[in-house]
Amino acid sequence: MFNEDGTYNSETYEYCAGYQYRDSTIIGFSHTNLSGTGHSDLGDFLVMPTTGKLVLDPLKTIEDNKGFYSTFSHDKESASPGYYKVKLDSYDVTAELTSSERVGFHQYTFPKSNEAHIILDMVYNVYHHDNKNVWTFIRVENDSLVTGYRQTKGWARTKKVFFAMKFSKPFKTYGHKKYNKETYDGFYRRFNQSENFPEIAGKDIRMYFNFDTDENEKIKIKFALSSVSTSGALKNLEAEIPHWDFDKTKNETKDKWNKELAKIEVKTLTENDKKTFYSALYHTMLSPVLYEDVDGQYRGLDQNIHTSEGFTNYTVFSLWDTYRALHPLFNIIQPERNNDMIKSMLAHHDESVHNMLPIWSHYANENWCMIGYHATSVIADAMAKNIGNFDYKRALQASENTANVRYFDGLGDYIDYNYVPDDKSHSSVSKTLELAYNDWCIAQIAKKVGNAEKEQEFLNRSEYYNNVYDEKSGYMRPKLADGTFRKNFDPLDTHGQGFIEGNAWNYGLYVPHQLDKMIQMMGGKERFIQHLDSLFTMELDDKFIEKHEDITRDGIMGNYVQGNEPGHHIPYLYNWTGKPCKTQERVRLIMDTMYGSTVDGLCGNDDAGQMSAWYVFSSLGFYPVTPGLSEYALGSPLVEEAIIHLENGKTLTITAKNQSKENVYVQRVLLNGKIIEGSTLQHQDIMNGGEIVFEMTNKPKM
Length: 702
Hints:
It is built from 16 helices and 34 strands. It is α+β, with helices and mostly antiparallel strands. The protein has two domains: about 10-255, Beta-galactosidase, Chain A, domain 5 (Distorted Sandwich), CATH 2.70.98; about 260-695, GH92 mannosidase domain (GH92 mannosidase fold), CATH 3.30.2080. Helix 3 crosses helix 15 and helix 7 runs parallel beside helix 10 (about 430-450). The longest helix is centred in the middle third of the chain and has 22 residues, at about 430-450. The protein starts with about 25 loop residues before the first strand and ends in a 5-residue tail after the last strand.
C-alpha cells in the first residue's frame, strides 16, 4: 500500500508474504504467495469460511461494523510443510489446508448453521492499490463448480491466473458484490446479476456461497490454478486430486516434503540447531515455483501459450539474491531441477522482446527488480560444475544478447565509459561491480563453449570494476561521466552514495571473480584483514541505515550486514588473506546469533531462499564465494554430521570431530583420509561422494 501522499508505505514490507506472526486476525487463505521477497505481489483468490449474517467486507463494513475477518490464537494453530490448521474463533470453524503441486485443498469443519458461507474474495491482493485489479471473470458452472480468472497489474505488470473451484457439497444459493463503479454493462443490465446469476465480470468482485451445515460437518474445496486457461485448471485438478480424501493428499504432500528434506540428514549439537537447519532447507525449496500445467503448457513472457519440451518450466527467479548460494545449492541437491530452471531462463530469453535472460522472472512477467544480469551467473555455475544438458552455445548467445541491451539500467553507459557514471544512473558503483562479475561469468561460458574471442571480450569487461576504485580514499566510489570521482562521498552511508542496499565499506568488497587482485588493490593482505576486522566490530550509527528497510539492526554485526545479500561472501574473504581462522570464527558467530528456530529466526527477509541457503552451506562447512567456479571456500561446520544423498546415487558424509559451541576453529580437513591443502573444496569432490572430516578445536590455527 501507499501513504496518502503517494509515497511507499514501508510497513507494507513486513507483509510481503501476507502473514505476520504477531497478528491476531485472519481474513482468509489465498492461493499464490511469495516467500521472503523484498517486495510483494500475488495473494490471488482469497477464500474465507464464515457463519451468521453474511458480511462481504474484510475489515469493516460501511456501517463501521466488524468485517468477515476472524480472530485466532496461535495456541489453536499448527503448521508443517504442506499442511496448515487453525481455529477461526469468530465462527467456530476449523480450517485445514494442504495442496498438490497445482491444486489447493481446503477442509472446513463447521458448526451447525443455516447461515454458513464461503467467501471468494477477488478484490484482495498482497500489496493492493486502487488499480491493482484489471479484470475479473467468473462462471458458476453448476451447483458445485466455479471457474474464472483474474488479471492484475502489480509487480507483475500483466498477470493472469485462471482457476477451477470445486466444492464437496452443493451450495444452496450464491451471489456477488461489485466494488468498482460500473461504467457500462451493455444489455447485461437487464439481469439481476448480484444473486444466482452464473456469469460475473468486473474489476473488483467478492462472491459468496451459502450452505446449511450440521454440527462438525466438513465442507471441502479443491482449488486448481493455471496460467493458461480454466480448462487447464480443470485438467490439473483431475490429474492431481481426483478424489475428496483430504488426509490422502495431506499425507502424500508430507511424503514429498520428507523426500526432499531427507536429501541432507544432519546430526547437531542441539535440537534447536536441527530445527533451524531444516527450517532453512525448507525455505530453500519454496521458490522458484512450478509454472506450467500438467500437460506442459504455460503462459510465456510474450503472453502466448507455450509447451515446455524437454524441461519443466519455472518462474519466480529473484536472481540478484539467489545466484549467490541458492542456485549453487541446487547444483548439489537439486541438479535436475536447476537444469530445468536454466532452460526456463533460456525460454524466457526467447520469449523476450528485449532478447534478455530474466532479471526477476515473475508469473510470465519481467519485473526488472534489482541490478545486473545474474542469470549468467546461474548458467556459468552450472556449466563449471557440469550440471545439466542445456544448449551451451544457446546459453552463450542469450548471455551475450543480454549484456548488450544498451537501454537496460545503465548498461549502455557501462559499455561506453567502462563503468557506470554516477551522474547518469543511480547505484552506479554497485551496478559497475555486479556487471563486471556478470561479464566474467559470460567469459566462463564462452571458455566452456570454446569461443576464445568472446571469452577475451568479456574478460576485458570484467575488469571494469577497477575504474570505480579510488586509491586515495581506499574505497570503491561513485565516478562521474567526466572521469572524476564524485565529491560529498560518505563510505558509511547506505543511501545515495552509489550503492544499492549497502555502502562502500561492505558492498565495496564485491569483486568475487578476482579476489586476490581486489585485496592487492586495496593495500594487501594485512590492510585488508584490518578492514574486515573493523567491518565486523565498528559501530554504525542509525542515521546511515535509517532509509533502508532491507538493512535493520537484527541483521547487522558492526557494519557487516548478514540480513541482506550483497555481503554474504564477506565472512569467507579471510581465507584469501591467510587467516581462515577468522572466517571460521565469524561464520560460527553469525550462525549462532542471527539464525534460530523461533518465529524471529531470520535476521532479514529470506529473499526467495538466499538467506537460508547461506545457512545451509555454512552449516555444512563450505560456501560458494564465486559462483562460476567449481570450488567452495571452507568455513566452520555447525553440524556434528551431515549425510548428503546425491542424485547420482552417491553419498557424501561430513563429520565434525570434537564439535562443540567452543570448538569453532578447524585444525585440518580430510577428504577421504587425505588432508586438504588450502582453504577450498572442489565441486567434484562433493559429487564423487565419500567422506569429509573437519577436526575441530577451540584454538585458531596460526
